[in-house]
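Shape matters. Shown next:

___
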Amino acid sequence: MTAEKIRDLVAQMTLEEKGSMCSGADFWHTKAVERLGIPQSMVADGPHGLRKQDDKADHLGVNESIKAVCFPAGCGTAASFNRELLTEMGAVLGNECQAEGVSVLLGPAVNIKRSPLCGRNFEYYSEDPVVASQIAAAFIKGVQSKNVGVSIKHFLANNQETRRMSVSVEVDERTMREIYLAAFEGAVREQKPWTVMNSYNRVNGTYAGESKKYMTDILRGEWGFDGYVMSDWGAVNNRVANLKAGMDLEMPSSGGQNDKLIKEAVKNERLEESVLDTAVERILNIVFRFEENRDKTAYFDLDKDHEAARAVAEETIVLLKNDGVLPLKESAKVAFIGKYAKKPRYQGGGSSHINSHKITSALDMAAGNPNISYAQGFIDEEDRVDEALLAGAVELAKGAEAAVIFAGLPDSFESEGFDRVHMRMPECQNELIKQVAQVQKNVIVVLHNGSPVEMPWINEVKGVVEAYLGGQAVGSAQYDILFGKVNPSGKLPETFPLKLEDNPSYLNFPGEGDRVEYKEGIFVGYRYYDKKKMEVLFPFGYGLSYTSFDYSNLRVSADRIEDTDTVTVTVDITNTGKVAGKEAVQLYISDKESSVIRPVKELKDFAKVSLEPGETKTVSFRLSKRSFAYYNTAINDWHVETGEFDIMIGKSSRDIVLTKEIHVESTVTLPVVYTTDSIMEDIFKNPEAKERVMKIMGSNMDIIMTTDKDEEGSASAQAITAQMQEAMMKYMPLRGVVSFGGGEAGISMDDIRVFVDELNAL
């Protein structure tokens, strides 16, 4: 339906109907207006599966939903570093939505992993905004290719579960722009999601849904978003303020209470009716976009989609350690140990919980292999050692050639609704790994978790496989990787620190009362660890393979550019091993000398390449101004400083294999306002200002900076060195000239003020 027809439709609606349209009919539907032919529209939870509820609806997954397919959670899909894979996954889910009449899938969730303790990290993609936004954009592209919308969430700075409905996130503008907004920005600009979901929390004191700055000025004004903004379920504090800010649809239904408030606000002239009209137009635009593009032939093939989930899971698994123990031979006598071998933890708890139509475990895949035996090893419902289960597992491991321990975090340790209190795995599992390693030299640990864990046993095992929460087909992918049928290609989208205390947010998570300060600023994840040169367990971007890759021939299309130019970077990747494999190539940028505090390096792009043994492919990247820029709050824009930058190609943030220097020339002159407090060093950065200072004050410099001309070694010469004089001159403010020789030099504060005016007039 055209925009004109939608406006005509809104013009025919009563004030009551318009107010009503801005809240849900129930938990999952928008309201219908039958007399005008406006249908209901259904939304459903995602993003890694379809959680459609018809009756007994709820938000946190307590009640039953339809049988569906659970794909790997965001923690895993980001590890694929594969845009094409995410687009394919999104298309499958979009088709499922069409088959079930769902207009909007609630996801993806792109909030930054500020702390490993966030209980909802399993849904989120990364500690890095480029990975988060690019993986999200690929997913959105796939879903919306089926004429089904997404709701990218949770906008904005929703990085903890503690007090999530009331906490105020205190964060500076540069950090917000470079980290937390950037996670959304790329996806919104590139793929135009149909809807955006605002978060529960406050941002610098204002509820996100009541912030015109974020809901309208940035989201719509700067990024070009043209859909509607819906609330997270219950994320409404002041309905009228929401509408004014640009939050259009309240979910779920308020039982008509907020509809009345909207109506009264218009009648009392506290809300312009045109603001309400615009919100209704946005909602109807999405309602009819889906309705007019319904695919009546769409069919939800559960088994086919299960295989699609398996293909995704294969690329989400990260091989973290392999001391020659993997891949295993199917003829080898192998002990599968741990409850998750039989009943894997493959998804998180809460609103994204999928009612899977079937689940494939690693033990299911081993059913036809007589060389594989099984012991449960532990109980995950409570963290206590079951001595009988432990003894049985140890005994089984003794007689095997290798032991694979399927461990990780139970639902009670991480879920929506609460944050973790530590980074440890259950002690019963750590004890199991420790004791098995004492009797078996070939131990592989397969982890099921949505966020980093500490590994006190890391030096006692030969292999570690990070399976994350790999969806309902995770067992198939695990088995195929363990036995070499699939070559692991995942890379960590987050840093695994050695211990919780190393994390940059440690001292300020989850805050005090209803306030949390992001004091680490832009130094989130690897930006912090790399700047500090801090040892980590596994770095960002890290992941092993059963083959090897050689990086060579790094080229740039130009070695000197202006910040308005783009530059193409190419690099050759060769599979130098004996098996086919995929490699996630990462491009980082380092500003070699900056006047502002910046990370050592920042990821700016990545690409996944598939290679047969001996094959070489060229990977290409395109860099623009944003690739070299930081956010400058003085001009409220992205700014590049003139200077040298390193283009780095790496296998992880800690494994940079090729570097190329490039010179970038800024085309923007930053505004400078001089005051009596301006120091000489800053003034001298402007050649014209320096010349003026030297011309007017040059004859007085000897008086200002005079010292006794005593012989070397005298008391005065020892007290005031040449280095001290130089430093004093650099850091002296203009007003200091009066104190240090002003009388003798004949310079007054009035003279300084006139001089400042002259400098500002340059």
Q: What stands out?
A: The chain is about 30% helix and 20% strand. The two ends are 56 Å apart (CA to CA). The mean pLDDT is 94. Residues 170 and 685 are 34 Å apart (CA to CA).
